[in-house]
Each structure stands twice: as C-alpha cells, then as structure tokens.
C-alpha cells in the first residue's frame, strides 16, 4: 500500500509539474507575441515618420535647388557676379531690393566722325535707349559733339562695350555708381506716414461741424497732399534713374594733319618758325589796316566832298592876294625939289 501511495503521489507531482510548465510556456508565448506586436507597431510608426521626414527633406531640397536655379535669371547673372550690367540688374531686382544708380563719362576720338556718329545712333537704338541732350559744332577744324544718353540699367555695360567697338584712336571711360537704397526706403516710409495723416484729416473733415475746424483741416490737408506729391515725385525720379543709367559722351575728330604736326628742333626750324610768325603778324596788320580804311571810307568821302571846295576857294583867295602884292601901281611925278628943274618933256599931272 505504501508503495502504491508513493507511486500515485509521484504521478500527481509529475502531472502538476507538467501543468505548471505548460502554463509557463503559454504565458511566455503570449508575452512574446504581444512584445513582437508592439515592436512591429513602433517600427512601423517610426518608419512612417522617417518617410514623412524624408519626403519633407526632399521637398525642401528640391525647393532650394529650384530657388538656386531661378536666382541667376532673377538677378540677371551668375552668383559670382561680374559686370556692372549684372550688378545694375541685381539692383533693380526684387530679391535684394537695392536701388543703384550708374553713370558713365566717355570720350571717343574717332577715325571717321560721320561713321562714328552713325554707329553711335545705331547702338543707342539697339540698346533701347534715347538721347536726352545733344550738341555739336566745328571749332578750328575739329568736329565735336556731346551727348547725354539714357539706356536701360540691365544693358548698361553691354552698351559701353558696343561703343568700344566703334573705330577710334582713343577711348576713355569713367564709371561710377550711387546706392540710393536708404533714401528710397526713407521716402517710402515718409510717404506711408503722410498718407495715413491724409486719411485721418479726411475723416475729421467728414465729421467736422464748424466752419473754422473745416478750414483748418483743409489747410492741413493741402500741406500733407503737397508733401505726398513731392515724395512721389522724388520716388519716381529715383526709379527712373535706377532703371535707366546715364552716359555723358563726347565724340570728336581733330583737324586733318594735326596729329602729324610737330615742332622742329635746331636753328633752321626756329628761323622758319620766326619767319612764319613775322609773315602772319604782317598779314594781320595789313588786314587790320584794310578793315580800318573800309570802316572809315564813308567819313573820308564826306570830308573830301566838303573840304575840297573850301580848300580850293582859300587857295584862290591867297593867290589873288599874292598877285596884288607883287604888282605895284606907277608912281606920279612930284613938284621940283630944292635946286632941281622940271623936265619939260615929262608930262604933268
């Protein structure tokens, strides 16, 4: 009996141990399944977040690339920047919001004045510019003309390079720029402030019931509107000068052969120069004398017309007086002097 009881007890213990081991394995399997599920969910969420972040990063990168690709076309040149024309275009762009005014002073000594003037007008037309002022003339055999030209700022340097292509002996240029961004921003701020004051004064005038108040508001409004127009005019002036650059140009051609004329050295050259100077001085004196005679000729004729008859009459009168002085009348006989006899042959009386 004792052996059976022990054996039975041993079997019960084995079954109980088997049940315990089965429950533990089940719990561990459930826990593993739950843990794996949570890990998968977390991994999925992280993956989705990473994909979203990557999409945003790609979008931002594409936007930056697009912006960098569009930037050169927006400012009119590469990011390195180079010519003055590109800088002027950047000044007119909305990206940097800079206001730059460019001006150039050019001097061109042309080989053929007429051809150079024609090429200049063609260059102005091709650059979509216009002539603001023009003056020409010829002094001492030299043909010369001055221009004040306005060209678009974007083609400022291209226009100067085109002028450099004109056939010339000498080409001088001086380029300067002025940054008016600060003044432009200040003008816009003042304009907005004046416009706000204008709106307030208009509102006060609508609500005014007294004639005195209405008159005061009207005077103040007139002053504010005058300031607004002055600010707008200055802004328009700056916009025009920023959009169109100014070029002061002098085009000339010296007298033919003037560049080959040189001063000779030595005694012979100095003697020749002195002789030429003497001849020139004599010619100048003769010219002045002829001019004086031509100017005094009417007066000389008048003096001759009046003076010659007077001179002739005075000469005749003097000749008569001299003739009378030389011709004496006969002397009449006198009575017999003391101790002398009268001549019987001599008539009396």
Structure commentary:
65% of the residues lie in helices and 15% in strands. Helix 5 (181-207) runs antiparallel to helix 6 (211-243). The chain is built from 7 helices and 5 strands. It has a 5-stranded mixed beta sheet with strand order 2-3-5-1-4. It has helices spanning 2-75, 84-92, 113-126, 156-164, 181-207, 211-243, 267-326, and strands spanning 100-110, 130-139, 142-152, 168-179, 244-253. Strand 2 and strand 3 (142-152) form a beta hairpin. With 349 residues, the chain is of the alpha+beta class. It has a domain at 84-253. The chain crosses the membrane at residues 289-313.
Question: Helical segment tally?
Answer: 7
Uncertain ranges: 27-83, 91-95, 260-264
Average pLDDT level? 73
CA-based shape: elongated
Largest sheet: 5 strands, mixed
Q: Give the proportion of residues in helices.
A: 55-70%
Structural class: alpha+beta
The spatial strand order of the largest sheet comes to 2-3-5-1-4
Strand content: 15-25%
| Cα-atom radius of gyration | 59 Å
- Distance linking N and C termini: 249 Å
What is the H/E order?
Answer: HHEHEEHEHHEH
E-strand count: 5
């Amino acid at each position: 009996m004792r052996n059976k009881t022990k054996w039975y007890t041993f079997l019960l213990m084995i079954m109980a141990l088997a049940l315990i081991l089965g429950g533990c394995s089940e719990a561990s399997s459930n826990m593993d399944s739950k843990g794996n599920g949570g890990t998968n969910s977390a991994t999925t969420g992280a993956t989705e977040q990473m994909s979203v972040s990557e999409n945003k990063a790609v979008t931002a990168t594409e936007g930056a690339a697009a912006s960098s690709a569009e930037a050169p076309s927006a400012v009119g040149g590469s990011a390195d920047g180079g010519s003055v024309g590109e800088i002027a275009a950047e000044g007119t762009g909305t990206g940097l919001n800079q206001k730059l005014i460019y001006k150039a002073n050019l001097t061109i000594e042309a080989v053929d004045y007429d051809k150079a003037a024609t090429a200049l007008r063609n260059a102005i037309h091709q650059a979509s510019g216009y002539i603001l002022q023009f003056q020409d003339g010829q002094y001492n055999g030299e043909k010369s003309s001055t221009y004040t030209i306005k060209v678009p700022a974007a083609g400022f340097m291209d226009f100067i390079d085109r002028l450099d292509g004109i056939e010339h002996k000498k080409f001088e240029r001086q380029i300067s720029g002025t940054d008016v961004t600060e003044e432009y921003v200040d003008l816009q701020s003042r304009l907005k402030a004046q416009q706000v004051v204008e709106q307030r004064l208009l509102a006060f005038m609508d609500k005014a019931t007294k004639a005195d108040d209405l008159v005061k508001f009207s005077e103040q409004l007139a002053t504010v509107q005058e300031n607004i127009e002055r600010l707008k005019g200055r802004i328009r002036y700056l916009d025009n000068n920023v959009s169109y650059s100014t070029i002061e140009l002098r085009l000339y051609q010296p007298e033919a052969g003037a560049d080959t004329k040189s001063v000779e050295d030595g005694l012979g050259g100095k003697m020749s120069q002195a002789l030429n100077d003497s001849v020139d001085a004599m010619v100048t004196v003769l010219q002045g004398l002829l001019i004086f005679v031509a100017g005094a000729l009417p007066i000389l004729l008048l003096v001759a017309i009046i003076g010659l008859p007077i001179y002739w009459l005075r000469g005749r009168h003097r000749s008569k007086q001299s003739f009378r002085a030389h011709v004496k009348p006969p002397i009449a006989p006198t009575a017999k002097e003391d101790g002398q006899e009268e001549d019987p042959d001599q008539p009396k009386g």
